[in-house]
Amino acid sequence: MKIAIHQPNYFPWLGYFAKMAQSDVFIFLDDAQLPQGRSYVHRTRILADGGGFWMSAPVRRERLQAIRDVRFAEDGWRRRHRAMLFHTYRQAPFFEPVMALLDPLFSLETDSLSRFNMHAVSRLADYLDIPCRCEVASSYGVTSNSDDRLIDLVRAVGGAVYISGEGGQNYQHIGKFEAAGIELRVCSYKPRPYPQVQNGFVAGLSVLDALFNLGPDARHQLTYAAEETCPSV
User: Fold this and answer.
1) Which of 22-26, 140-144, 168-172 has the highest mean pLDDT?
2) What is the C-alpha separation between 55 and 110, in angstroms, rounded?
3) Per-residue pLDDT tens for 104-153?
4) How many domains does the structure of the chain reveal?
5) Residue 44: inside a domain, yes or no?
6) Which sign does the torsion angle of CA 47, 49, 52, 57 carry?
7) What is residue 15's predicted lDDT score, i.e. its pLDDT?
8) SS3 for 122?
9) CA contacts within 13 A on the Cβ side of 10
10) Would you say 154 and 199 are in contact if contact means Cβ atoms under 8 Å apart?
11) What is the pLDDT of residue 225?
12) pLDDT band at 36 (very low <50, low <70, confident <90, very high)
């Protein structure tokens, strides 16, 4: 089985879902430490004025805090983010069905950042017809670090292949995966331009941008990535 592992991000970009589409099991790394400073765990980019605009959910920060322990600082961000999406995408071809998909997410009764993100990502993956099974890292009690942690999680779910993003090459040691009998694949993702609500194309935006503009056809962006950008190391 092919396994991908990633922090539970807030309405992440298409590349995140392309990684899910390439895997049989996707593990939310909810017990990783919340990154210091700005992070995709609690913010995402939408289209505004011909470029990207950051949409951030306020969180309560503590030192050395696991993502699963992070709580929202207040609740008004849900209304604000919905209003931003309405203002930006109300003329988009798939505005109404996608907002109908998002409204129950914004109404989810939780103050947990990881619970909100995992629920949202899983729901959007279903909409994109991504068949992978989602698991939560903290449920396996793995206490190792770095590559060993990834290897232990892959083993815990019975995986034989680990799918890494390009950024993983900066810290992963291929030899460790080989010694563990796990194939390491490094997958890049370069989205093809698609029509947006403004002229030109801005890459790296939230998956929501693709959904508002393409609807269910956004899944074709993922198929393209899965078929053409996943070379074995």
Assistant:
1) 22-26
2) 19
3) 999 999 999 999 999 999 999 999 999 999 999 999 999 898 889 999 99
4) 1
5) yes
6) negative
7) 93
8) helix
9) 25
10) no
11) 60
12) confident
Q: Is residue 233 part of a domain?
A: no
| 32, 72 Cβ separation under 8 angstroms | no
Residues 6+ apart with CB under 8 A from 78: 106, 107
Dihedral sign for Cα atoms in the order 211, 215, 221, 222: positive
Mean pLDDT of the chain: 91
CB contact at 8 A, 7 and 41: yes
Query: Hey, what are 13's tokens?
Result: 């970009």
Count other Cβ atoms within 10 Å, centred on residue 35: 12
Which pLDDT belongs to residue 199?
A: 84
Residue with token string 């998956």: 207
121: how many CB neighbours lie within 10 A of its CB?
24
- The token duo for 167 is 């950024």
Q: What is the 3-state composition of the chain as percent helix, strand, coil, each rounded to the nearest 5?
A: 40, 20, 40
Q: Which amino acid is at 33?
A: Q
Q: Outline where the chain has alpha helix (H).
A: 14-21, 77-89, 95-106, 113-127, 146-156, 174-179, 207-214, 219-228
The parent domain of residue 186 ranges over 2-228
